[in-house]
């Protein structure tokens, strides 16, 4: 804890110094900063048995996670910029981020150590090409966006180290665990095995065609060398991930958006059926071989799927969202989490009604499921990198999340969060689980 505190203090002081330096320069720079601290706990719950990746059924408390990021942007030439995001992350989630497919803290991940680490989250180049007869709109500097006159009809090319969630599967009400819902399967479409290392970043290329009212995005990026691993696989002819998204906006009466996403990932991921055929049941040493903790060195694992993501403003104080996603469920999850199909919906209400205009209430329900092959895999005593109780009495994983975010002062927010998890890791023999959290967030 002392290490985390010292490092957070260091990066906060650095942020203040750099912020002043940039304010004294010119508008060629964009600078922003965020710090998020989350403390989660859950009381004890009933469990008939536990396995290698089970949520601990005894009470857990003071599971603290910390992330802090500097967002730097620099204009290069007309419609071009370079973005650089050093980031620090530390702490751990409940049960070391295992035991619930829709995990309860989107700001923590499985890195094997709770010690804080400083790393480069993003480093990428972006160029906008205006299309013929395009209009222009003034864009103020914000996170990873420099002050500019942005073409309203354009092609945008982004290349470098990126976070896929920055470009795909966005949602105004359910996308950012630093200020909205904490659950993994609410911050992104649960069945989208979005390509990334364990911290959520990858390398590659994103191309977007943007027109007033609609957009199309296409990407080709790297996948991890092993499931949920830190190292990316640079054998790009054998391991890669392609994603396409079509977005349609409307403004009639109230603004809304619908997004359709499709993806295809190629990696070393084995299929559940092949793994079952190769493992001698009851041999714990063999069971251990077929987890996500190794590099398989056998390419050809293909996972594909689809997602739908919609949002609609209802009034000046309320908006709703819906998400639905599916993947083929034959090949092991390789990057995000062990969900093969998922649906979620929710509502966001602003605090204007009680004279707290910067406050927000969020309420959401998500239901996650897995394929029959995945069920057989878990019931045989095998496990991936998130779930695995030794056996399985299958039931859909159902999660209800409620949060209240209150603005305390300036750019400082405090949130109280509650999640009710029924059938954690798809197992009727464990749970339900009540998860409580307090979140502090600063962003400027």
Secondary structure layout plus pairing:
Layout: H1 2-23, E1 29-42, E2 60-75, E3 80-91, E4 117-130, E5 136-139, E6 148-151, E7 154-162, H2 184-187, E8 202-211, E9 214-221, E10 240-250, E11 256-267, H3 272-278, H4 284-289, E12 301-313, E13 318-327, E14 341-351, E15 356-369, H5 372-379, E16 397-409, E17 412-422, E18 433-443
Antiparallel strand pairs: 1-2, 1-18, 2-3, 3-4, 4-7, 5-6, 7-8, 8-9, 9-10, 10-11, 11-12, 12-13, 13-14, 14-15, 15-16, 16-17, 17-18
Helix pairs in contact: 3-5
CATH fold topology: Porin
Please compute the radius of gyration using only Cα atoms.
22 Å
Approximate helicity band: 10-25%
Termini separation: 25 Å
Q: What's the number of structural domains?
A: 1
Order of strands in the sheet with most strands:
1-2-3-4-7-8-9-10-11-12-13-14-15-16-17-18
In CATH, what is the class?
A: Mainly Beta
CATH superfamily: Carbohydrate-selective porin OprB
Mean pLDDT: 89
How large is the share of residues in beta strands? Answer: 35-45%
Structural class: mainly beta
pLDDT < 50 stretches: 281-295
Quaternary state of this entry equals single chain
Order of helices and strands: HEEEEEEEHEEEEHHEEEEHEEE
Shape: globular
Largest sheet: 16 strands, antiparallel, barrel
Number of strands: 18
- Per CATH, the architecture is Beta Barrel
